[in-house]
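Try this one yourself first.
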């Protein structure tokens, strides 16, 4: 795992040599905006070929490159010729190649979301792309225009370095430890605390997150970021915590001391209506979902009135006690 984290860091460094606009979306995958680099490399194909050669030469790894005018198409293009391929995709070729495919293969559409789309009568990507926009809005709320857009091969989302995402596109909290930690349980409690704070800000801003990121900085100041896209948007601290905890590399807090942890919620969508909530039945369905939302609302009201320390998770009690002893 230590080697895996190191190689991931080196991969991102190689990508950043081709453009400063590198947006990691997982430990081994990223979006690159190469608009400003084309003059140096002559063409997108030349840049892609050189990038592949550099990764192979320096890391002994193959990689697949997708070249397209936007992030949705670029992500879809990377899946076309794996492994070690390079594919080009524009809006017209996307419609021809993917129009008859199921909506479940669209980037950002998880299984439960796809099931909900299917139940509304849209089976293929073309069905969704050709659907009446007003009907989609009636069925899926503000999510409707986004679904039609990605099914049409369109996206206005810009590429940003992960630490430079626009404020409205991400919500994050991080903490630096006074002493480097080799206590795995302590790190997990810290992730729980950070996840709870992120979830509270999501609720206050009326957002759901599609992507959860964990930032880890070792005692030697090496920083890695790992990300995971959820099967459906959520503002539930339990989902955020479970995801972030699973992103913590095995060696960290055991063999590798940890100096800093950060949890980020990104790719946000408005939690604007009950219709949208019902779409994501993974996390927002049935009586438990309703009672959870009522509970979170009550907790938020108490904290708004009496401060953040008025209520806390029982699992964080040892951390609070240790802080009191230190004082």
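Now uncover the answer:
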């Amino acid at each position: 795992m230590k080697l895996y984290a190191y190689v991931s860091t080196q991969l991102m460094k190689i990508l950043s040599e081709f453009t400063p606009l590198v947006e990691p979306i997982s430990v081994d995958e990223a979006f690159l905006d190469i608009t400003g680099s084309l003059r140096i490399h002559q063409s997108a194909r030349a840049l892609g070929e050189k990038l592949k050669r550099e990764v192979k030469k320096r890391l002994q790894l193959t990689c697949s490159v997708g070249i397209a005018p936007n992030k949705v198409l670029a992500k879809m293009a990377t899946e076309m010729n794996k492994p070690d391929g390079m594919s080009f995709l524009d809006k017209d070729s996307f419609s021809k190649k993917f129009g008859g495919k199921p909506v479940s293969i669209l980037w950002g559409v998880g299984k439960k979301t796809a099931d909900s789309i299917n139940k509304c009568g849209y089976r293929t990507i073309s069905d969704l792309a050709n659907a009446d926009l007003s009907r989609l809005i009636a069925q899926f709320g503000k999510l409707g225009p986004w679904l039609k857009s990605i099914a049409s091969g369109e996206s206005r989302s810009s590429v940003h370095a992960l630490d430079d995402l626009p404020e409205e596109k991400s919500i994050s909290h991080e903490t630096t430890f006074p002493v480097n930690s080799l206590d795995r349980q302590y790190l997990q409690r810290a992730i729980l605390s950070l996840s709870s704070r992120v979830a509270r800000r999501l609720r206050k801003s009326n957002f759901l997150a599609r992507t959860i990121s964990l930032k880890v900085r070792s005692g030697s100041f090496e920083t890695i970021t790992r990300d995971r896209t959820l099967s459906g948007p959520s503002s539930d601290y339990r989902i955020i915590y479970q995801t972030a905890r699973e992103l913590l590399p095995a060696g960290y807090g055991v063999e590798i001391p940890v100096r800093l942890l950060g949890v980020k919620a990104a790719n946000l969508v408005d939690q604007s209506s009950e219709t949208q909530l019902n779409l994501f039945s993974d996390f927002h369905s049935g009586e438990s979902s309703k009672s959870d939302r009522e509970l979170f609302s009550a907790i938020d009201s108490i904290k708004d009135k009496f401060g953040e320390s008025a209520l806390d998770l029982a699992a964080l009690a040892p951390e609070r006690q240790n802080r009191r002893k230190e004082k």
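Discussion: The chain has three domains: 2-91, 100-151, 165-326. The domain at 2-91 is CATH 3.30.70.270 (Alpha-Beta Plaits).
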